Amino acid sequence: MATALEAAFSVFPGSPLFRQRLLTLNPVTSLKLQFSPPSLSQSSIHFSPLLTCNGSGLSSFPPRFSVQDMALEADADAGETSEENVKRKLYVANLPWSLSVVDIKKLFGECGTVKDVEIIKQKDGRSKGFAFVTMASGQEAQDVVDKFDSHEVSGRIIRVDFAKRFKRPSPNPPPPVPLAHKLYVSNLAWKARSNHLRELFSENFNPISSRVVFENASSRSAGYGFVSFATREEAEAALSALDGKELMGRPLRLKFSERNVIESSNEKEGEDGSSQVQPES
């Protein structure tokens, strides 16, 4: 009987008055524990047990709890814990290379309890010169900032601040693409190649690139190409001087290209610096 009552108490931890009443009952020959099937819904789970003793007239005492309520409480606790962790975690930079975890704990221990120290290291195990330190409370973390920020340690001025204020630096933007001023050269002889264009334009100017376009199917010259210059002024001068000039028996027709330098850099290179693109109208 005592074992059965202990089992009942473990399942239904009733009030002290209920325990006293149950234990002072006359000995009974049986103890019946009856559970109604649990009902499961989206918002909560209910257990409605019924405890009866022969002739005792005890009423049921159904325990009840809400899964939804428990989830909300857990989320709130997690949020508070996360916020508290942010307030306790410090970022420490410009540390001496020789400073160890023990050294940092001893140093910051002057302001409270150091819970954790993480020194960021390189692949070879050497310190990168910064670390993350977690104190026992937000106030202790603030005390460390107040006392040790801009403090000299082994000849170096360390920086201490709350870790949340230090975000990873954004990657460096790619270098700007140098602007090129490109001339469209048409009416080329079929045997003309990029080196022929370069030689012609290099007599009086400084082109930065030249290319002849080839047809995709036959791999024959399409009869036009491009010559690029670093400045618009030089491109204009080359256009004025060489428009109509003969190359390999054919007069060249020049105009400014509508394609920019990015498009030209993506063109498919052919032999002798040639490329395969669509002609300009």
Automatic annotation (TrEMBL):
Q: Where is this region: Disordered?
A: 261-281
* SUPFAM superfamilies the record matches: RNA-binding domain, RBD
Keywords recorded for this protein, A-Z:
RNA-binding
Q: Which InterPro entries match?
A: Euk_RNA-bind_prot, Nucleotide-bd_a/b_plait_sf, RBD_domain_sf, RRM_dom
Pfam families per UniProt:
RRM_1 (PF00076)
Biological process (GO) annotations held by this record are: chloroplast rRNA processing
Signal peptide range:
none
Q: Which SMART domains match?
A: RRM (SM00360)
Where in this chain does the record put each RRM domain?
A: 88-165, 181-259
One Gene Ontology cellular component annotation held by this UniProt entry: chloroplast thylakoid membrane
Keyword RNA-binding on this protein? yes
Q: Which GO terms describe its molecular function?
A: mRNA binding
UniProt protein name: RRM domain-containing protein
Which species is listed as the source?
Trapa incisa
